[in-house]
Amino acid sequence: TMSKVAKHNSASDCWSAINGKVYNLTKWINRHPGGPQVIKNLCGTDGSAGFNGQHQGQQRPANELSGFLVGDLAN
Predict the structure, then answer these.
(1) pLDDT at 56
(2) Residue 59: per-residue pLDDT
(3) Which of 8, 43, 63, 68, CA to CA, is 20 to 30 A from 33?
(4) Whether the model pTM is above 0.85
(5) Euclidean distance between CA atoms 66 and 61, whole angstroms
(6) Of 38, 3, 43, residue with least CA distance to 23
(7) What's the Rg (C-alpha) of the chain?
(8) How many angstroms separate the CA atoms of 42 and 14, rounded?
(9) Residue 35: helix, strand or coil by DSSP?
């Protein structure tokens, strides 16, 4: 749920909901090509708009993201 995602809102414990799925992005923060702050801004939030705005339709970012899947976002 988003309430659970919201608890993971720091650089040392970073989850984000993107397009109905939840991802643990903690290990990706310092590896992100656009810099760590981009990912830190998504911690504990629904990052769909940010991810889609930057990467919509691009296969490589979607493949990278899939490696951090926690599960489906529940209502």
Answers:
(1) 85
(2) 93
(3) 8
(4) yes
(5) 9
(6) 43
(7) 11
(8) 8
(9) coil
Q: Which H or E run contains 3?
A: helix 2-6
Helix (H) or strand (E) holding 39: helix 36-40
**Which run of H or of E encompasses 17?**
strand 13-18
Tell me the C-alpha distance between 15 and 12, whole Å. 10
Place of tokens 């911690």: 43
Residue type, 43: C
Phi–psi pair at 41, nearest 5 degrees? -65, -20
CB-CB contact of 29 with 37 (8 Å) = no
Residue whose token pair is 């749920």: 1
Identity of the residue numbered 61: P
